[in-house]
Structure formats: structure tokens, C-alpha cells
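Everyone, describe these C-alpha cells:
***
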Amino acid sequence: MTDVSETVGALDGVFVLDLSRILAGPTATQLLGDMGATVIKVENPKSGGDDTRGWGPNYAQNEDGSASDLSAYFMSSNRNKHSIAVDIATPEGQDVIRRLAARADIVVENFKPDGLVKYGLDHATLCAAHPSLVYCSISGYGQTGPNRDKPGYDLMAQGFSGIMSITGDPEGVPTKVGVGIADVMCGMYATIGILTALRHRDKTGEGQHVELALIDASMAWLVNEGLNYLTSGELPERRGNAHPNIVPYDAFEVADGHFLLAVGNDAQFARFCDVIGLPDLSADVDFATNLGRIKNREALMRQIKPALKTWAKENILEALAKVKVPCGPINTIKEALTSEQAQARGAVRNMSVKGVKGGQIQLLSNPLKFSKTPVKYRRPPPRFGQDTDEVLATWLGDKPTS
């Protein structure tokens, strides 16, 4: 049996040149680094590096108690990377990037379309010089279309894509998801695209340009609601926590808070009705089937909501779980990350970092579980430019600058 502690990552030997910043690109390159790739993150010395290094208010503290350049936001998507300080606006910096690109398998960037052309670091230039290169470009609206030159932010992507129109309380304002999900999902799509192109390159020797946009990715994950519109021509409604195709599926008030209920089929609905003391509901022609419950959603809510308010949260969760009706709590982030399930699955990872107070930081773990090539947490999120001399000496043979 293989000792997984001695295995290398599946992408061991793959070199990634990371010209990206903020969240979408760094999410993709962190995933590649987690799977064993060597990731060189290029940061602008004039700005102090990736913008998110300054996105507080939460930072790992230096040993003297001051805020370090490791913000919580930056640390969320930059482990398993080396950081080098290189100014690509200078001829010297451009030369460094070209030489690193010559060694790279993958380049990832999220500049505005054509933003790297003036530096000679765009996909057309580098892919022509290195035909086996996989070059990934991420932008807000894509390299084509009337909006190509508009800046892309997660909030704008959520708004433009339609996801905000179906998120939030029906009586309230359209609401974004609580984290930068458009960026994160775009980064995940980017990772899939990069690995697909890498597979093609390994089979044929031929690299390619992988291009995607926050807007495109966000519209792709409209999933069932997007298809609800395309199939019927009717605009989906904002339903808060309710589901457009399953009833009852929502957050419900009980005597001491709220809980989640997700009745997935008619048999579960019958068992749910038995538990809450309304067995006749499941035999009612208006509610017996999911289609009937969708058509008569409001009438059903008037029946079950008062009954649920008589229950304590712990009791209703226990009673429904006993008869295998899907239900669950609404945890705070603290409750989620400190739960027994999170601990059993290793949801939080401690990493040692020199120079920070206490010598350690906590990160969210990669959720992937591999039986042969497990995720390795080899490098904590780097301090700005900490690896410049080492990387240039190791990969390019340059002498240290100091």
C-alpha cells in the first residue's frame, strides 16, 4: 500500500507563472499549487503586490502586533505559491517574465483584454514563441463582445448574470451571494480549462489559449433557473430560501430560531406531515404530489408554518432526521468550522509562518480527497516578494540583487 505521506502531487513538475491578482485567477492557481504544481506569483513592487494584501480589516499580525501584508482575503487564495516582485512595465521586468514563460507550462493572467499587448506578454506573443504553452486569460466580460473593455468585479458579474435577480427576500432588494462566488466559480472553471488544455498538450505537444469571463461563468451556473427560463420563457421569481421546483424546501421558523427543510419527494412529504401532526395533508389532492405543492405553495405554507412554530429547533431536527426527512441547522461560520463534521473532514488547516505572531495561521482546506496523490500544504501564503532572488536564481540562473 502506498504511503501517501511520501507521494508527490499529481501536478508535480508543472510550472505555473501566475500574473493574476484579486480572486478568480489566484483561486485557479492556488488549486493548481495544491495539486503539486510550482506556482510563481508575480507581484507589482510599485503597488506593494496583490491588491488584496491591503483588503482588511483582518490580518495576520507581525510579531510586534502590527498588521502584516497577509490579509485574511489574500491568504484565502494564495497558499502553495512563491512570490516575486517584478515590475512588468519595465523592460527589465518584461525580460524576466519572458524568460520565466519560456520555462513555464502554464501562464495565468487576469488583465483587461489586450492589457498585456504593450508589454509583449499577451497570449498571442507568448504562445507564438512557445507553442506548447497553456495560456489562460480571465477577464470580466471576455475578450470579445460590446462590454469587453468594462472592468469586471464580482458584484457586477452577479448583477449582470441574473443571479442577483433571484437571490434575496421576495419583498427586499436583489442580493448578492455573501462571498465572491462569481470570482471563485470562474477560478474553478479556469482550473478545469487549464487541466483540459494541459492534457491535450501532453498528448499532442500543442498548447492553446484558454479564455473565460466572470460573466460567462456566472451565467453558466444559473443551472436549473436558467433552464427554467429557457424552457418556459417565464422569468424566475426571487424566493428567498425557497426552491422553484421543490416544495417545501426553505428555511422555517420554529419556537427558538430557524431550521432548514428540504422535502425531495412525495414519500418524504408524507413522513414530514406525520411528524408535525398533519397527516391528512399528504393525502390532500392539492398537496400529495410535488407538482401540486408547487401550484399550491402559499396554501401549503399557511398550513405548515403555524405547526412548525410550536417546535423547538433541536426537537424538530431530531424528529425529522429519525424518519429520514432532509433537514438541517443554519450554522454560523464559527459553528460550521468548529463542528465535529468539519473536524473529521479537516476543513481547517494550520500552517506555520515565520514572522507572524504565534508562528501560525489558519486556512480553509482544499476539499479534494485523493487516494494516491493527496493535496499537500507545502507553502503558506507568501510575504510580498519573499522569493524573488531564490526564484530568479533557481529558474533563470540570475545572481541575487543584494
Q: What stands out?
A: The chain has two domains: 4-221+340-396, 249-334. Residues 67 and 307 are 51 Å apart (CA to CA). The longest strand covers residues 38-43.
